[in-house]
Amino acid sequence: MLTYLSEFIAPFWGPARLLASYPVLAALGALLSATLSLLMLPRVWHVLTKDKGRAHAVNAEESVGKPVGVGIFIVLITVGVLLICLPFDPKLYFCLGALLIASGVGYLDDSKPGGLSELTLGLTDLAIALFVCVVLMNGANTEIWLPFTSAHFTLPWWSGVLLYTPVVWLCINAVNCNDGVDGVSGTLSSFTICVLGFLLYFVVGDVTNAKYLLIPYNPDAVSWALAAAVFCGAILGYLWHNAPPSAALMGDAGSRPIGLFVGMCVVVTGNPATVFFVGALLLFNGATGLAKVALMRLFGWRILGSIRFPFHDHVRKNLHWSNAQVLLRFLLIHVASIWLLVILLIKVR
Asked: Is-contact 254 71, C-beta < 8 A?
């Protein structure tokens, strides 16, 4: 909307041209979404269901009675701001719709006594992941690049869908499994989204840098970088209230769409392995538990039996870390590792 406003006003007032600049739109959008989250969430979370505690979770009683499902408002704020800031992009609009659906499913899981079944959630996540991959492929061939090699190759759209759908599904569930300690899932995810935004704008979405780094250029990437800035702003506004001890919880209504957004950004980068470089700690903390349970149920294999997952539960129970220690130490590890891994991703080729 703002880009069209710029076209109308710029002939009469030159500075209005800035409203067509992606960096300006990203800054304005992030600031607006953060402000809305910061100010509006406390005014609306009283209508949400209250947390009843999670079975087998460490210190689950500390969350009992707090509003849960705040993530649905985070997503609504993000979508609303993006409709204002984004140039017209049908593919991205469909993906924003998928974010709303993922958040709605998450809120149903938050509000229903006992939550939705694992099968229901798994199949719903798979359907949403499949839908966004079909939208992003858009019936066209897709160029894939991989780490540690300068080669890249072209896949037909249906192969791209088959390749990326499990990646998006993994992102949804890994981020969801990170939720459980005040601030951890939101903080780690927001930093991951920031780094993805950096890659999308300065690497994949910049024709000169992409050519220099031998990475396929994607003109759609800059719009996704703008979306990343706005979503990150909305999460940061929420984190003000989620700092230990938290006043409210985003629940599955927030963690699932955040994971979905991370997965969609990975698809836009053109490299399915990107998730392992930008979300290494998210995957270790959350997805390792998924792999552990899957191996035990499918093959009877018991691995890492002495370690509790999500790993944040292990360090709280076995190492007696406080919630604040988990948050700060995980963030330090995440920040220190992610930039090294990203440099390896784009430079060692």
From this structure: yes
